[in-house]
Amino acid sequence: MPVPLYQAKAEFFRTLGHPVRIRVLELLQDGPMHVRDLLAAIDIEASSLSQQLAVLRRAGLVVATREGVTVVYTLSTPDVADLLSASRRILSAMLVGQGELLAELRAETVR
Description:
This protein is of the alpha+beta class.
């Protein structure tokens, strides 16, 4: 029995639900990166990064290619970068709304 689309979407967003995975995807927006460069930029244990990269690979969000003894990661499609940009816009709009609400609350306490 096929998985309903809404369930597949939920699983996709669960894949994105880890800060290291989001950071990796953000870094890869600028182009391919060696694992050593990802490690330096994220500052986590190599085993933890490897685990998160495996999740992203299985989900089809990144592609790994071997260059000699090193592995280079890239985004699987520019759509991943588009999704991250959309999430920034949505988050910014949410924070603006919260800032406006906070300003209203502060104004009420002054009265």
